[in-house]
Write a structure and sequence with these properties.
The structure holds two protein chains of two kinds.
Chain A (H helix, E strand, L loop, with lengths): L3 E4 L2 E4 L5 E7 L7 E6 L6 E5 L3 E2 L7 E6 L2 E6 L8 E7 L6 E2 L3 E5 L1
Parallel strand pairs in A: 2-11
Antiparallel strand pairs in A: 1-3, 3-8, 4-5, 4-9, 5-6, 7-8, 9-10, 9-11
Chain B lengths: L2 E5 L2 E3 L5 E8 L8 E6 L5 E7 L6 E3 L7 E6 L4 E6 L8 E11 L2 E10 L3 E5 L2
Parallel strand pairs in B: 2-11
Antiparallel strand pairs in B: 1-3, 3-8, 4-5, 4-9, 5-6, 7-8, 9-10, 9-11
Classes of the chains: A mainly beta, B mainly beta.
């Protein structure tokens, strides 16, 4: 099975900072990658699918890129409401798999 | 409004069984594939099982294969997960989730809608 890794596992940044999270697949998955945001006590929220397509209603400060094995989620200007854990997920083939998550908080 | 409401969780002894249910509303249930995704306390997300729109195709994580069975009843707009031979490591919040479709394209295993979950605790 394809394994997903994320780095860093956690980060602390200031409001307004540019934040980048990396996700890597153990084998190529083309662009079959999604990103989710999970705030404490809440269900995950779909942010991005097809590696770079922003889900409707998601702020434009979020963006995704990559293809094959290496992907990034970028928050162009971190806001207090972005404090959350972010998960990547591959969905090209069974079983779909999530990365271990990256916890983002405010410095 | 899309709603997914899980039920059936509880405390069970190792080796025991539970049947989870997910009641769907606000969309045409038999147009969509569905999945169960779990999250152990303080841990990450794990896809458990999925089923296509008519129940003709199912899939399971290796960790539950042979112990869990997913099914659906489109007449009742309901998704189920029969869990047998439960282990301590199955303790988690179990969410049902719906495949995402937009502009006539459906993305299997991309989840824009999630239920709040039902908690399963396996403990002696």
């Amino acid at each position: 099975d394809i394994q997903m890794t994320q780095s860093p596992s956690s980060l602390s940044a200031s409001v307004g900072d540019r934040v980048t999270i990396t996700c890597r697949a153990s084998q190529g998955i083309s662009n079959y990658l999604a990103w989710y945001q999970q705030k404490p006590g809440k269900v995950p929220k779909l942010l991005i699918y097809a590696a770079s397509t922003l889900q409707s209603g998601v702020p434009s400060r979020f963006s995704g890129s990559g293809s094959g094995t290496d992907f990034t989620l970028t928050i162009s200007s971190l806001q207090p409401e972005d404090v959350a854990t972010y998960y990547c997920q591959k969905y090209n083939s069974a079983p779909p798999a999530f990365g271990p998550g990256t916890k983002v908080d405010i410095k | 409004e899309v709603q997914l409401v899980e039920s059936g969780g509880g405390v069970v002894r190792p080796g025991g069984s539970l049947r989870l249910s997910c009641a769907a509303s606000g969309f045409t249930f038999d147009d969509y594939g569905m999945s169960w995704v779990r999250q152990a306390p303080g841990k990450g997300l794990e896809w458990v099982s999925g089923i296509n729109w008519n129940g003709g195709s199912t899939g399971y994580a290796d960790s539950v294969k042979g112990r869990f069975t997913i099914s659906r009843d489109n007449a009742k707009n309901s998704l189920y997960l029969q869990m047998n031979s439960l282990r301590a490591e199955d303790t988690a919040l179990y969410h049902c989730a719906r495949d995402y479709c937009t502009n006539g394209v459906c993305y299997t295993w991309v989840f824009a809608y999630w239920g709040q979950g039902t908690l399963v605790t396996v403990s002696s």
